Amino acid sequence: MFLQSQKLWTMFLILAIWSPISYSLHFDLHSGRTKCIAEDIKSNSMTVGKYNIDNPHEGQALPQTHKISVKVTSNSGNNYHHAEQVDSGQFAFSAVEAGDYMACFTAVDHKPEVSLSIDFEWKTGVQSKSWANVAKKSQVEVMEFEVKSLLDTVNSIHEEMYYLRDREEEMQDLNRSTNTKMAWLSVLSFFVCIGVAGMQFLHLKTFFEKKKVI
């Protein structure tokens, strides 16, 4: 039973790691509008992205209305990619800091308004490495190619486990800090209530003494 649970947990971990690191999006963007897409990337991870505008008229050049500006920034505001008035492009960089990275697409302002269809592919970690090109360049055997891919996957899983553990420790520290602050707030609220009750008692006592009730 324990062995089965361990296998299920391993498969779940692999799926959790592989599912967010590679995806392809297709979305519409209207003139003058901006759309941003976020991706959580751990530090020292390789990430690559590719984008292009679908041509509404096959075989013809894209009109000037079909241009976008693209900017990729980190959570702290560092700029990793910036392109103006383009219809396609790509970026690649190694994340220096962990956290959310934002890719923002802005369509040129145009009247009347037009709608652009954009394809965007973003890969992170293992998926960002083109093993097919590596195999083609080095002429390695198929088995060696598969072993390299598996080793890279294992290393990625290992790094992801450490990353998740660090994030869990950060959340635990945040919870402990929040609980401590709430405890101090409760104590402070208690003494404030006692103080207010004491002041009310003294006020009523003085009032009744003046009225010679007591």
TrEMBL record:
The keyword Coiled coil applies. It is a single-pass type I membrane protein. Pfam families: EMP24_GP25L. One of its GO terms (cellular component) is membrane. It is found in: Membrane. Residues 1-24 form the signal peptide. The chain crosses the membrane at residues 182-202. Belongs to the EMP24/GP25L family. This is GOLD domain. It comes from Arabidopsis suecica (Swedish thale-cress).
